[in-house]
Amino acid sequence: IIISTAMPQWKMASYAGDNIVTAQALYEGLWMSCAMQSTGQIQCKVYDSLLKLEGSLQATRALMVAAILLGLVAVFVAVTGMKCMKCMEDDQVKKMRMAVFGGVIFIIAGLAALVATSWYGNRVARAFYDPFTPVNTRFEFGSALFIGWAAASLAMLGGAFLCCSCPRRETSYPPTRGYPKNAPSTGKDYV
């Protein structure tokens, strides 16, 4: 999620149409826009003002930053609930609940990233198919969108796995009886 947020390739210029310009590739991201020349030189420009940006871009930024922060909190909470950690080792039920709580936070972080990337992708697709958008200013999905979708899916999957470690409720079955223990053999007991 961090990599997807930082990448400038959220949308890239589309070369569909008659006016094909291959001398440069244009990218736009959440924080900057970049132009890559055919020589390999990249020039990026950070967006000047936060207030000049579209509201949907600001909301996408906020959702991605919230997903990152929630993911970091989820890591710390879930690590506390791991069986290999010494923290809270005297109460296994609370330890398992911490792991489940970390999983829930991971799912929320994944949902925030999924909403942000899907919303941005929807805007790119709608602008691409809008007949009033000039052909030379159309954009397609960039690689950061695909990385964001994969990261959101993995965060939700990991959270679901952590939620599977939910402590079981007490059952009303009678307690099981153990087998009687045999006395240790001295080695002289022959049959």
Low-pLDDT ranges: none
What radius of gyration results from the CA coordinates? 27 Å
Number of strands: 5
Based on Cα principal axes, name the global outline.
elongated
Query: Helicity, in percent?
Result: 40-55%
- Average pLDDT confidence is 83
Q: What is the first-to-last residue Cα distance?
A: 68 Å
CATH class of the domain at 55-164: Mainly Alpha
Task: Give the strand content.
Answer: 5-15%
CATH architecture of the domain at 55-164: Up-down Bundle
Across the major sheet, the strand order is: 4-3-2-1-5
Summarize the main sheet.
Answer: 5 strands, antiparallel
CATH topology grouping of the domain at 55-164: Butyryl-CoA Dehydrogenase, subunit A, domain 3
The helix-and-strand class reads: alpha+beta
Count the DSSP helices.
4
Order of helices and strands: HEEEEHHEH
